[in-house]
């Protein structure tokens, strides 16, 4: 973003925030102090930009992080806004989160859906929503983005030590839960889902010692790294991330390699987040690889029920993934093309 544009946005945000503050200076001060004290507020959250103090229990939450809404819903609140990534579910509340959404407190009113932001940088729209908390964990915020959002409301950004879009779902859930005054609930939900993953791993010893990675036919072959949620899901259920591929994602959640280097992804199980035709068009030599000849691949096209949850990988979507994706991984890892369900 150019400096002049950034300054203009900052000015607009400041004006919007000032107007919002004039009309809602008492919001949350009456009737909520007791609840906030009981939930342990004020709370300080450490993250990669420093720390954020949340003085009282938030009710109007904007999720700038692309998958953060699932953790917010799991903690019992419907966000006032979510941020578009892909898919067209109303309010970007997807089927695996429907039950949580129906049971959650809705600051917008019964049955109303979150506004959907088009990007992580719609600062003026965020300010107009008058949030009392902004989450930006599964996000790629810069320091300038964080500073602008912090002028609107407390911001919970990604923790230190991870690439952008690389925070483990466990930490994302716990950070958001803590910020909402629901730390124990978050920890319990994380433990429950980790238990489901551990059971899946134990139930499928055939995954042990087998290499697996998720890729897509983008600018050659885009390899999702070991810190990407897609990669973490595979290792959580027993697969091993290929050592030869770690060099491609040291500073980002993933990286593309040329189609000429397709042999790099000749692993025991390969998950393509695209249709088979896209792979064969982008990588003509793919059919010559062992992973293709032995039917060790899973193709998840855009019209596949797994297309969105396979990329979300949240506390709410993982049980759905276990149910729907694991059987296809079982069919792929055996090296028998006749068992494939693609």
TrEMBL record:
Cited Pfam families = Peripla_BP_2 (PF01497)
Give the chief site where it resides: other
UniProt signal peptide: 1-20
Indicate yes or no for the key word Signal: yes
Outline the extent of the Fe/B12 periplasmic-binding domain: 60-333
Q: Please give the name of this protein.
A: Iron-siderophore ABC transporter substrate-binding protein
The family note in this entry says: Belongs to the bacterial solute-binding protein 8 family.
Q: Which SUPFAM superfamilies match?
A: Helical backbone' metal receptor
């Amino acid at each position: 973003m150019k400096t002049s544009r950034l300054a203009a946005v900052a000015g607009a945000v400041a004006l919007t925030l000032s107007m919002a503050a004039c009309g809602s200076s008492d919001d949350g001060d009456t009737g909520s102090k007791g609840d906030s004290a009981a939930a342990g507020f004020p709370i300080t959250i450490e993250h990669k930009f420093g720390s954020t103090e949340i003085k009282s229990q938030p009710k109007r939450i904007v999720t700038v992080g692309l998958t953060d809404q699932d953790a917010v819903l799991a903690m019992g609140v419907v966000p006032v806004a979510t941020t578009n990534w892909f898919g067209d579910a109303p309010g970007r509340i997807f089927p695996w989160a429907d039950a949580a959404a129906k049971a959650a407190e809705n600051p917008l009113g019964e049955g109303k859906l979150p506004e959907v932001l088009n990007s992580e940088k719609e600062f003026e729209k965020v300010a107009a929503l008058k949030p009392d908390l902004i989450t930006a964990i599964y996000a790629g915020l810069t320091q300038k983005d964080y500073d602008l959002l912090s002028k609107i409301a407390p911001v919970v950004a990604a923790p230190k030590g991870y690439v952008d879009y690389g925070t483990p779902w466990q930490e994302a859930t716990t950070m958001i839960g803590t910020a909402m005054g629901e730390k124990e609930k978050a920890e319990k939900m994380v433990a429950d889902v980790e238990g489901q993953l551990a059971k899946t791993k134990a139930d499928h010893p055939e995954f042990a010692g087998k290499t697996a990675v998720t890729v897509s036919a983008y600018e050659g072959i885009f390899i999702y790294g070991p810190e990407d949620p897609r990669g973490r899901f595979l290792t959580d259920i027993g697969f091993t991330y290929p050592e030869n591929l770690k060099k491609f994602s040291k500073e980002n959640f993933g990286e593309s390699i040329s189609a000429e280097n397709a042999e790099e992804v000749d692993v025991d199980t390969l998950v393509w987040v695209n249709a088979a035709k896209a792979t064969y068009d982008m990588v003509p030599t793919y059919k010559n690889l062992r992973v293709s000849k032995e039917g060790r691949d899973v193709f998840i096209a855009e019209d596949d029920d797994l297309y969105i949850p396979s990329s979300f990988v949240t506390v709410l979507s993982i049980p759905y993934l276990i149910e729907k994706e694991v059987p296809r991984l079982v069919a792929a890892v055996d090296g028998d093309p006749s068992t494939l369900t693609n």
